[in-house]
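FAQ

Q: What does a record look like?
A: Structure on top, sequence underneath. For example:
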């Protein structure tokens, strides 16, 4: 049975409606920028960097980064979008990049190499709808405050990595 070796849960603050996962020594920000939310282009890929386009531009999103001993089991809780790819980690140090805000640092350390990866997302549509609903509400209302709190971390992403 596949087992996670390392797991981290972070809150990522989207900047220009995106954030990235990259190798610490190769975070050149050269991955293609994801397309608009209405398209399937939610993910921009390069060998050592993934850009993720978020459904809303303002609130932090939940990010689970997992390093597995081998390919993890299928996501049974129905991600809205999912993509398999590869990520090169020549330094063995994946980082979260919040674009102009920079990086809070190395997530964890793994052996150097190229990893198979699965990137998945949940609650994008709901976060998009709620964010747009929030824009039409009275900012001083209790309903606004409650919805604002609900939006923090609702949109969720998972990066699962394992050695090829």
């Amino acid at each position: 049975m596949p087992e996670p070796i390392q797991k981290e849960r972070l809150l990522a603050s989207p900047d220009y409606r995106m954030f990235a996962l990259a190798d610490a020594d190769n975070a050149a920000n050269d991955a293609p920028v994801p397309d608009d939310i209405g398209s399937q282009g939610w993910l921009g890929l390069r060998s050592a960097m993934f850009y993720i386009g978020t459904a809303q531009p303002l609130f932090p999103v939940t990010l689970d980064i997992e390093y597995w001993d081998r390919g993890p089991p299928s996501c049974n809780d129905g991600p809205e979008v999912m993509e398999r790819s590869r990520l090169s980690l020549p330094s063995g140090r994946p980082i979260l990049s919040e674009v102009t805000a920079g990086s809070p640092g190395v997530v964890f350390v793994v052996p150097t190499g190229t990893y198979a990866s699965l990137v998945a997302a949940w609650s994008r549509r709901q976060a998009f709808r709620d964010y747009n609903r929030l824009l039409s509400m009275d900012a001083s209302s209790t309903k606004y405050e409650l919805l604002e709190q609900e939006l923090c971390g609702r949109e969720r992403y998972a990066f699962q990595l394992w050695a090829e």
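Q: Is there anything notable about this one?
A: The chain is about 15% helix and 40% strand.
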